[in-house]
Design a protein that fits this description.
This protein is 72% helix and 0% strand. The protein has 10 helices and no strands. The longest helix is centred in the middle third of the chain and has 28 residues. The chain starts with a helix and ends in a 5-residue tail after the last helix.
Length: 199
């Protein structure tokens, strides 16, 4: 049996898809999630609303996939041989400018995620869960190498620590998250919590 999604998805070229995602993210920054409408996306991208709904199903999926399109490749490709190296490599995938833009997008979505169950669901399924699975793989490798004890209680909070540092940098310090900040945070907070020596 053929994949029913294939014919409908093939109508938009990768270039056109990237263009649409960029327009969605611009609108999201300008007006926020609640005021962003499929009509506005259609007008901004000179496409029909029917095409948008056929391709993405609705606003939540479109917004989350647009955000996911900004992610710099897969963490699955990262394997430096050490947990510290892997975590630093994850941070190094994005420059400071991209990080600042992503932090602004996350702020634009934070309240909407709490208020919209469909957005929360799409966010978890399309963005959070895939990233968490890739992250768990990196952590499992560190445990298998003997760098981290499998019963270390901090393992359950690694993602919370990293996301917390990224999300609260602006709130606490009135500064954007940067590579330098995140790598120093990893060395000062995350690795010591896991019992990983820095040398």
């Amino acid at each position: 049996m053929t994949d029913v999604a294939a014919p409908r998805r093939s109508r938009i070229t990768p270039e056109r898809e990237a263009e649409l995602y960029a327009a969605v993210l611009d609108l999201l920054r300008e007006v926020g999630y609640d005021a962003l409408t499929m009509d506005a996306v259609a007008a901004r991208t000179r496409s029909s609303k029917a095409t948008l709904y056929r391709q993405w199903g609705g606003k939540a999926e479109l917004v989350v996939k647009a955000m996911r399109s900004q992610k710099p490749g897969s963490m699955a490709d990262i394997d430096t041989g050490s947990l510290r190296g892997d975590l630093h490599a994850i941070v190094a995938r994005e420059d400071d400018c991209a990080m600042e833009q992503n932090a602004a997008l996350m702020r634009a979505l934070a309240m909407a995620v709490h208020m919209n169950p469909d957005l929360r669901q799409a966010f978890k399924e399309l963005l959070v869960e895939p990233e968490m699975e890739e992250f768990r793989r990196i952590v499992r490798r560190a445990v298998d190498r003997g760098e981290v004890r499998s019963d270390n209680p901090a393992l359950d909070y690694m993602v919370h620590m990293l996301v917390g540092a990224f999300a609260t940098r602006t709130l606490i310090d009135d500064l954007p998250p940067t590579r330098e900040f995140l790598t120093s945070y990893i060395d000062a907070v995350v690795l010591p919590a896991l019992g990983v020596p820095l040398h």
